[in-house]
Write a structure and sequence with these properties.
Elements lengths: L11 H4 L20 E5 L2 H12 L3 E3 L10 E7 L3 E7 L4 E5 L5 E7 L4 E5 L2 E5 L3 E5 L5 E5 L5 E7 H12 L12 E3 L5 H16 L11 H15 L5 H5 L5 H15 L7 H8 L3 H12 L3 H19 L8 H7 L5 H12 L3 H10 L1
Antiparallel strand pairs: 1-3, 2-5, 3-4, 4-11, 5-10, 6-9, 6-11, 7-8, 7-10, 9-12
Helix pairs in contact: 3-5, 4-5, 7-8, 7-9, 10-11, 10-13
Length: about 350
């Protein structure tokens, strides 16, 4: 079983049924060539699959173009980041009344498209990107041969990463401006992160294909998007304050991330940050609305989730293995905390991956 072929937001078993033996279509990125999810001329099936990727949507194809319509979807999933290639072959209107609980970056790899979003109409081409925030209503008009390369980032993962980058909790949802320029010097960071991720997928001996290192690469993708694309938090990212409170929190988080699988005491953190334990606690309360101990617990829960999501049956990993690896020795209380944070039990996370 291929580690990168699972899409947790999509019923992969069902969508693989319509895939036909055919010559590989031109334009599919090399990293996605062997990850076909759908190849079907059926409009209803295409609508169902596209809805799982982007949020409930309606597809409209003019009658004269129905004969050339084919929905081709290639996709791979890591932990909280997915890469996809979507092409309808024929001119198609894609109406999304409310996008999924994720951020999606659409890059038109050829041809031209237009989008109506937030009361404005924009032209999309290979030099621009469409960035959709959760719950956005938009209409995408795709011309013939205007395939979309899409990066999907789960909302919770982006918010957790942004909170760590700022050293404080978020006080409002993240909203990106919908269209970005892919030709700027800043955009090179996004292209570079995408190339690194693609190279890891294509290399049979890469760590990510062995189930190692996906979290770090996802953080690179997420931080690149946050730095490159203007959002409601861009100004704060550019002007992170440096007084004692935030410095204490940032230094503390740095130590916690480096020693997450080891025993960590407040004195250890204070010694590394060169601040008193009381200052550390005050900084966490003021900037993150939490305590250092609660922060460590949540980061360890995130680590357990990554371990369970990356596990395959042949790995033989159990929930107990993952929990104890990241410092949870009381499985009953661990399960309660896990369900509160992720909305499902750890065994459901593990079974969900294995059934995909």
């Amino acid at each position: 079983m291929e580690r990168l072929s699972r899409l947790r937001f999509m019923n992969v078993d069902r969508t693989q049924l319509p895939v036909r033996d055919r010559i590989r279509p031109r334009g599919v990125p090399n990293a996605l060539q062997d990850h076909a999810i759908l190849d079907s001329p059926d409009l209803e099936t295409a609508e169902q699959v596209t809805s799982q990727l982007l949020g409930g949507c309606r597809l409209s194809v003019a009658e004269p173009d129905r004969g050339t319509f084919v929905c081709r979807l290639h996709a791979i999933s890591f932990l909280d980041v997915s890469m996809a290639y979507l092409d309808f072959a024929a001119p198609t209107e894609l109406h999304v009344p409310r996008s999924a609980d994720c951020f999606t970056v659409h890059m038109t790899s050829a041809g031209q498209a237009t989008v109506e979003v937030e009361g404005a109409r924009h032209t999309l081409n290979p030099f621009s990107a469409l960035v959709i925030s959760p719950g956005t209503s938009y209409v995408l008009h795709l011309e013939k041969s205007s395939p979309q390369n899409i990066v999907r980032i789960e909302r919770a993962a982006l918010e957790r990463q942004l909170s760590r980058m700022l050293g404080r909790r978020l006080d409002a949802p993240v909203r990106f401006i919908p269209v970005g320029d892919l030709t700027t010097d800043e955009a090179a960071r996004w292209h570079g992160a995408l190339q690194i991720l693609s190279a890891e997928v294509m290399n049979p001996g890469s760590l990510i294909r062995q189930g190692v290192g996906a979290g770090a690469l996802e953080e690179l993708m997420i931080s690149s998007l946050l730095y490159v694309q203007e959002s409601t938090y861009s100004e704060r990212l550019r002007n992170k304050p440096g007084p004692s409170g935030n410095r204490a929190v940032r230094r503390s988080i740095e130590y916690i991330e480096r020693h997450l699988a080891e025993p960590i005491s407040l004195d250890d953190i204070a010694h590394y940050a060169k601040m008193s334990p009381r200052s550390i606690q005050a900084g966490f309360r003021a900037d993150l609305d939490t305590t250092p101990i609660a922060f460590i617990r949540d980061r360890r829960l995130d680590a357990v989730r990554r371990t369970l999501l990356a596990a395959l049956p042949e790995d033989g990993i159990t929930v107990t293995d993952a929990a104890t690896r990241w410092g949870f020795n009381h499985l009953g209380s661990f399960s309660v905390l896990y369900r509160e944070r992720f909305g499902e039990s750890p065994s459901q996370t593990l079974r969900g991956v294995r059934s995909a």
